[in-house]
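Researcher: I'd like a structural prediction for the single chain below. Treat it as a standalone chain; there are no partners to consider.
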Amino acid sequence: MTKKTIPQGAVPLIAHVIDRLQVGGMENGLVNLINNMPADRYRHAIVCLRTATDFRRRITRPDVDVLELKRESGSGLGFYWRFRNAIAALSPDIVHTRNLPAIDLPPFAAMAGVKRRVHSEHGRDIFETYGGNRKYNFIRRAVSPFVDRYISVSKDIDGWLKSTVGVPARKCVQIYNGVDAVRFHPAPDREETSPLPDFIAGDDIVIGTVGRLETIKNQIDLVRAFIELTKSAPQITSRLRLMLIGDGSQRPHLEACAEEAGLGDSVWITGDRNDVPDLIRCLDVFVLPSINEGISNTILEAMASGLPVVATAVGGNPELVVDGVTGSLVPSQNPHAMADCLLTYIQSEELRKHHGAAGRQRIEAEFSLDAMVRHYMAVYDGVLGRAAK
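Model: Treating it as a single chain, here is the predicted structure.
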């Protein structure tokens, strides 16, 4: 536990319950929410069911507790008692649970004396890709009486909660993620700003993605599409580069695939990085090859950085990428279609610039951090019966 002094008084406390505080889209959105919410409106604590990594350093507010409950696989009833005691000790005004690992906890928050409870769904993992798992949906329905409001990050998830899970529509609110359009901005000149002179030459064309290297994110299809692209455009193969920003269990498989194709020198897997905005600005085209998504922070960050986005037409991706305007949508798990789409962008610098500029304009108009923070505060104000400020 990282202990910091939380000021006492009338400012309500929200306990955000997540699996782990680590590099990830949901976690990034939570940190952005906490950092940008006015301190005189709400205080915050983060309860990690498992652990917290150095990602906690991205929290800029000095008054945020981070608790680690060290949950292990197969934890029995004893864990629920520890969770209940931790929440009781915090005595928050609202418990806000997130995603499947925390879905069974609202009743125990109620047992701890917390009268207001919010749950949000940010996306589904590989073991329930399409949201049809009967066991998990039964649990979701069973705990629904203990949840005052459900937040979904996309219309796709909002519809699933209502139609498949059976959450009453009156409890559901849909809020898009916001992106820091100051931190993520277009590069004025890649040659002057690139931190990668050994990987990228001035006339190289760089394709890339950002995300956990896990099965649900499906970076292997991007590697396969890149291999096919080099065969389709042999005249520029030496100028093509692929950058996979992130780390995870699939890294050895991805590296082996690139090496077997003889493209090891053209593919760079960066591992976890603290300079993601700078790396994104080194790209010419951003790709999200996921099997499923909620609302992708990395798509928003790429659009804010002025890049055209090629994304699979799954989950909330079609709500972000306007096909033929800010980028292109391709079928999921179809490397051939992805390669064909990438070839179009590779062949047209004008198209890349046009779609990238349109994406940046859409971010400024519809996906600001300020709008996201206002919408979340409206939910918290609503469940507490407070007048919005």
